[in-house]
Amino acid sequence: MSLITTENLTKYYGKLKALDNVNLSIPEGRIIGLLGKNGAGKSTLMRCFLGFLKYEGNISLLGNSMKHHREDIHNHVAFIPDVSSLDDRLTVKQTIDYVSNMNDSWNAEKANDLLSKSDLPINKKVSGLSKGMKTKLYLLITLSLDVKILLLDEPTLGLDIVFRKEFFNTILGEFYNEERTIIISTHQVEEVAHILQDIIFIDEGKIILQEDVEELKSRYSIYTVKSDKEELLEAHNPRLITKTLGHVSAILKSGLAIEGAEINTPSLSDLFLEKVGGSNE
């Protein structure tokens, strides 16, 4: 079952084409990585899913057109952006009370359970919280909504490694099941690679690929030979050859017979560089 489908989705900012004929089908019960360099179109795609932006083409979310923003979409979709939209004037408790009164999908039992496990200072104002604590509060609120789709847009940007690990462990433990889908937008492949089931590579507004992670990895291998045998790799027209300590490596299709080559399984980072190239930063 597809929770989100797009047909020829295109978005312009003036003359800049941020999304270019995007066609996707997002299935139920998957953890999906939306990976791309800065400016690739990840955040724009997320905001189109939510109906926040005008666009050309079509988006269907749970069978409903998203041509215009619909308030009832928040009964089915939760969104954690890269910048918190919490009200600095409210305390932690006031924030939770406010959100619970505004959302029909609020699960009070889940919220109380998450709050009891957290170290959030209930009577402290949001303005006095660290970025990590604000993210914890935002996460608690989001996970207390009974929704089918969770959109994460660079959710751990600016957090230290301890907070980042805790964040993703909480997401997996408290939200994910076979009826819910998580889409994680990021340009830091290594951070989420271990939890992803499906992968989408986006570059300059175009979808480069959408595939099951394990199937993708099985189709490619890293071949490493001695530096004086580089022509053995070049014969297969690799996109990129890397050189280290007297050896050269390239990602090529699995199953090739290359004399003397050491063969290893590529990581998602390796495959991302192969398909999309280096950083724009």
| Distance linking N and C termini | 37 Å
Supply the CATH superfamily name of the largest domain. P-loop containing nucleotide triphosphate hydrolases
User: Into which percent range does the helicity of residues fall?
Assistant: 25-40%
Q: From the 3D structure, determine the CATH topology of the largest domain.
A: Rossmann fold
Please, how many helices? 9
Unreliable segments (pLDDT under 50, ≥5 consecutive)? none
CATH-scheme architecture of the largest domain: 3-Layer(aba) Sandwich
Q: Note the run of SSEs as H and E.
A: EEEHEEEHHHEHEHEEHEHEEEH
Largest sheet features = 6 strands, mixed
Strand order of the largest sheet: 6-7-8-3-9-10
Computed CA radius of gyration, to the nearest angstrom: 21 Å
Proportion in β-strands: 25-35%
- Class of the largest domain, according to the CATH hierarchy? Alpha Beta
Number of domains: 2
Strands, count: 14
Content-based structural category: alpha/beta
Average pLDDT for all residues: 89
| Backbone shape | globular
